[in-house]
Design a protein that fits this description.
Blueprint lengths: L17 H26 L4 H29 L20 H4 L4 H25 L3 H15 L1 H12 L2 H33 L1 H11 L2 H26 L10 H20 L7 H26 L4 H24 L1
Helix pairs in contact: 1-2, 1-4, 2-5, 2-6, 4-5, 7-9, 7-10, 7-11, 7-12, 8-9, 8-12, 9-10, 10-11, 11-12
Length: about 325
């Protein structure tokens, strides 16, 4: 036998008593302080200066919490009702710690800005629900403090993150993005685009059949994607090289390898042979130039050298496939 369970309906803010409003404010400040400390712990290894910013912001939230507890103690005594943001309508859901671990530095900053805006709106609304003059003053002061946290963050940024340090952190984030996503993805795109040219166009000119050519291209692309993905993930765990999660790198490499091959395999779904072949050739041309562009933009390879390496190499592989298919 089993029982059906239903979650309790959320409370409306205007249904809370003044004691409950103070209790909600206390728990909210505690939660925000813990979140900022989690951000600081998350960032301290790679971005130590930003970690100091969030540690200082956690200290500010802790001060707000103590002010609210003092007010509650004066008005209602020592017992604080247990009420949290998830019990009340209108609050944004916070990410659990295990999801925060995957946030980038910019995403963490954006989350912090939204937390401050949400806290500001809460204090403005809560102020309307209380009649005690001293409590209204405190909530209004906290609203202004939350609104001014962007200025506090800017001040802390000047204290802990001067322009040269901010530039270094941004360069570190960019370098990590390149190492984790761009580099393995580019390797996969190059392999998928170039290595599948010969079998696809050899099959096309050998058979003259678009469907059989598509099947050859599909199998070559998917097989290459799986092989490259596992190879990238298995050969480096990223701990020493600093290239990031092997799973992320493996997915980036495998997916881009498969897409590189599928780009000129999919046109062979067109039943007319020459229409499909000309379309595939145009896509190959665009793929090779896209690879050269990515190499130049993210890998800082001189553009003409990238063109020479990729376009010339790809053209030779394409020609080899056509010659073999006509042999």
């Amino acid at each position: 036998m089993f029982r059906l369970s239903f979650s309790a309906p959320l409370r409306r803010l205007d249904s809370l008593s003044e004691q409950e409003i103070l209790a909600l404010a206390i728990s909210s400040e505690e939660d925000d302080a813990r979140i900022y400390l989690a951000y600081a712990d998350r960032l301290k290894q790679d971005y130590p200066q930003s970690a100091k910013v969030f540690a200082d912001m956690a200290e500010v939230e802790h001060t707000h919490r103590n002010m609210l507890i003092d007010m509650h103690r004066q008005r209602f005594g020592e017992h604080i009702p247990l009420i949290r943001r998830e019990h009340v309508q209108g609050f944004l859901k916070r990410r659990p710690d295990w999801l925060q671990a995957n946030l980038s530095l910019d995403q963490i900053r954006q989350e912090a800005e939204e937390m401050e805006r949400s806290a500001y709106r809460f204090y403005l609304e809560a102020q309307k629900q209380v009649s005690d003059a001293s409590t209204r003053v405190l909530l209004g002061d906290l609203a202004m403090a939350e609104q001014g946290h962007e200025d506090i963050a800017a001040m802390l940024g000047e204290k802990h993150r001067p322009e040269d340090i901010r530039k270094d952190e941004d360069e570190t984030a960019h370098r990590q993005f390149v190492l984790t996503y761009v580099q393995p993805g580019l390797a996969g795109l190059m392999d998928g685009s170039v290595s599948t040219l010969a079998p696809i166009f050899a099959a096309a000119f050998a058979t003259g059949q678009t469907w059989q050519t598509f099947l050859v291209g599909l199998s070559a692309s998917v097989g290459a994607g799986i092989s490259m993905g596992f190879t990238e993930a298995a050969h480096d765990d990223g701990k020493i090289s600093g290239r990031g999660s092997p799973i992320k790198r493996g997915l980036a490499c495998g997916i881009m390898t498969a897409l590189g091959g599928l780009g000129h395999a999919l046109p062979y779904l067109i039943p007319h042979f020459w229409t499909a072949t000309i379309t595939a050739a145009i896509i190959v041309f665009l793929e090779l130039w896209a690879i050269a562009f990515i190499q130049n933009k993210y890998m800082e390879t001189p553009f003409f050298r990238a063109v020479l390496q990729v376009v010339l190499g790809g053209s030779l592989v394409l020609a080899a496939g056509i010659l073999i298919g006509n042999g």
